[in-house]
Structure formats: structure tokens, C-alpha cells
Amino acid sequence: DALDARTREMVDRRARLLGPAYRLFYANPVEFAHAEGVMMYDSDGNEYLDAYNNVVSVGHCHPHVNAAVKAQMDKLCTHTRYMQDGILDYAEMLLDTFEKDIAHVMFTCTGSEANDLALRMAKYHTGNEGIIVTSEAYHGNSELTSGFSPSMGENSRLGTWVRRVPAPDTYRVAAENMGEWLAAHVAEQIHDLQRRGQGLAAFVADSLFSSDGIFANDPELLTPVLKVVRDAGGIFVADEVQCGFARTGSDMWGYQRHRVVPEIVTMGKPMGNGYPVAGIAVQSHICEAFGHDMRYFNTFGGNTVAMAAARATLEVIQNENLMENARKTGAVLMEGLRDLAKADARIGDVRGTGLYMGVEMVKDRATRDPDSALALALVNEMRARRVLISATAANANVLKIRPQLCFSTDHADRFLTELKGALASVTT
Ligand code: PMP
């Protein structure tokens, strides 16, 4: 094969040691040695433009976050059973970003744990079992959360208490009112849950529908859906692991674009700019009984270093006006992508908000037949041009463009130049 000897050796060693469940990106996998801002460097010193990693959301190795983590690590790393100001100061900062009904925050280490805790609370509060998600949703890797993550693959084992609704696919669904359309699907599944005596505990959604194919175009969508959910006694869990922390460019949280207030918000990925920090924000009446009847302790969740990382990350988002930057750079990127689409019929649709874009590749604009092979070829061609992206949706035919929030308009220009070149050279 075309891999050089060192890459081949690492790929084999990895398979031997880590087993078959781990997947690598790219036909020609890449090893990174270090990174800074929006740039990554491979072991030969080549520079790559990172337009994908939303974990190090304020920029790779941000000095303010790294200094805070190092200082706290040198001073004290301990858990939430001792009193600390750090967790309280951060809790106040974080709660300030939410509507006033959302009054408590609790901390975990991963987004999966956050969704797991949210669902335990939802079930306890409602006394119901059922969970409704979109058809290609991803909400986590634990036994509970993988049970409502259909995007884990054809063999994913969905819970018997899980129902799926189609994503609000504005490219393929010609509904006059997308919110009413989705609400009708949700109502149908609620009816089925009730018929089987399970009832609805929660509707769980990522308001950008990331793994369904990135559907950001209809920000009024959730109001009618949540009416149906609440009428059935269920709650709304907003999974903000991907779309939170200013990603949309217009609001701190993705759900805020829809002008609704969730009972529980879950968050993770970008929260500590790479340090594992995640958590939930919750309305008091939802966690009331749960908190009285049960205890919650998470050894690493909310530890002093995690809180230092999270606080420093939020400070950077606010002090460097990264939401505004996401909006501004996102608009440039969107315009450039739309220009590319005008000149290339293989691009069926361009959508997104802030610094989260989807570019849908199709075999034919009339039939909208997904072109997975083309999307894959483009992702690999971009890697060859040293630009990092990926693909998403059921058919993996939607280019996923999700750079760090500090991506500048110059970076956007460089990105667009390379994508134009990639489109010209890939002829699948
Ligand atoms: N929810 C969403 C929307 C996610 O994208 C992810 C991670 N891809 C998770 C939850 C799970 O987060 P983690 O990998 O930190 O457990």
C-alpha cells in the first residue's frame, strides 16, 4: 500500500495494542507533534490548518488556559468534598450565561457522563422511561447513552425505551413549517411510548443536529416540539456538547437560537479547552427529588484543576470576543462556500451557523442522491493539502467544517482556496 514505513508500523502497532474498536482518520493517517492556535504540526514539522477540532475551541495550547491548569496542578488537585472557591466562582460565571430558571450546575468529566446524569434525573423526575432522539443522534459512549445514540452504527443496540424521529432535514424535507413537522413526528413516538406504558422522560437533542448532517437553518424549530414534549410530562435535555460555548456565533448556547429554555443542559467537549471537563446545568425543580434521595459524587468531575481549566476557557471566550469572531469569520466562510456551490453542481447544499458548517455532496442535484465516496475523497484530499476536516450524516456525505473559535478571515480564505483546489482535483 501507499503508506510510508513508519506510518505502516504505527498503524499495525496501534491495532495490535488497542484492538479493533479504534478508528483512525484518513487513508494516510497523520501523527501530530505539537499545535498552536489553529495550526497543527506533524512529526516532520509540516503545518496543517485545523478546521475540525472543537475541543481546543479557543485555540490549541492557549497560554491563558495552560497557565491556569499548570498553576492549579502545582498548588492543589482535589475533589468536591472539600470546600473550594474555584468551583463556586466558576459555577457563578457559568450560570450567568443561562436564563434565570437554570439555577444549578453539576460537573462530570465527559459529555457521556453529563447525558447519563441528565437522563437519570429526567427519569427520576418524570417517573417515565421513554427517550426520543433524532435518527442519527450521538449522545455518548456509556451503556445508557450509547443506548440512545443511533449514529453508533447499524449494530448499535438502542434501548427498548428509545424512539427515533427524523432530523429536521431542510434540504430534503419540504415542510412548510419544520417545527410543526418535527412536533408531529415527536407526538407519534410519544403516543407509541404511552401505549406501551413507558411514557416520555425526555426529548434529547443537539440543536444543530450535528451527527444527523448539521441542520442549522431553522432556528424557530423547537418551540412547537417542546410544547408536545411538555404536554406529555416529558422534559427537554439540550445536548450542548457540540453546539455550546459560542459555537453558533449568535448565542452562548445553541438552544438559545430557538428562544426556548431546557430543563437540563448538558455540556462538555470545549469546556476546558482539552482538559476533560463536562457537566449539566439544570432547573431546580428537576434535580430537587433526585438530590434529596440520592448522592452524586464524581471523583474527577469538578476537581480543582478542571475548574481552573473551565474558568480560564470561559474567560478567553469572553475576553477575546470569540462569539463575535465566530459570527464574523463564519459569515465569510459561508459566503465562500456558497460561491463554491454556485460553480460546482456536486455541492447540493451549504448550511450552518457561526463556525459550524455542513457542505452536502450529492451525485445529482435533482435527485439529491448522497455522494459518500466524493465526501470521503475530499476529506482525504484536504488532508493531503494539510487542511483538517471530516464528514458527517447517515451517509457521511456532508463535509463537517468546525474550526476553533479564533479562526480568522485569513484562515477562512486559506481554507476556501484549498477546498476549491480539492474540488478541482477530486473527480470521483
Ligand atoms: N453529545 C454530543 C452531541 C457529542 O458530540 C458527544 C461527543 N462526540 C457526546 C455527547 C459525548 O461526549 P464525550 O465523548 O465527552 O463523552
Order of helices and strands: HEEEHHEHEHEHEHEEEHHHEEEHEEEH
CATH architecture of the largest domain: 3-Layer(aba) Sandwich
N- to C-terminal distance:
20 Å
What is the total domain count? 2
Instruction: Give the mean pLDDT.
Output: 96
CATH superfamily of the largest domain: Type I PLP-dependent aspartate aminotransferase-like (Major domain)
CATH topology of the largest domain: Aspartate Aminotransferase, domain 2
pLDDT < 50 runs, ≥5 residues: none
- Tell me what portion of residues adopts beta-strand conformation: 15-25%
- Continuous helix count: 12
- CATH class annotation of the largest domain: Alpha Beta
Name the bound molecules.
4'-deoxy-4'-aminopyridoxal-5'-phosphate
Question: Can you offer a commentary on this structure?
Answer:
The protein has 428 residues and is of the alpha/beta class. The protein folds into two domains: 133 residues, Aspartate Aminotransferase, domain 1 (Alpha-Beta Complex), CATH 3.90.1150; 257 residues, Aspartate Aminotransferase, domain 2 (3-Layer(aba) Sandwich). 38% of the residues lie in helices and 18% in strands. A seven-stranded mixed beta sheet has the order 4-10-9-8-7-5-6, sandwiched between helices. The longest helix has 22 residues. The model has no long low-confidence stretch (mean pLDDT 96). 4'-deoxy-4'-aminopyridoxal-5'-phosphate (PMP) binds next to helix 4.
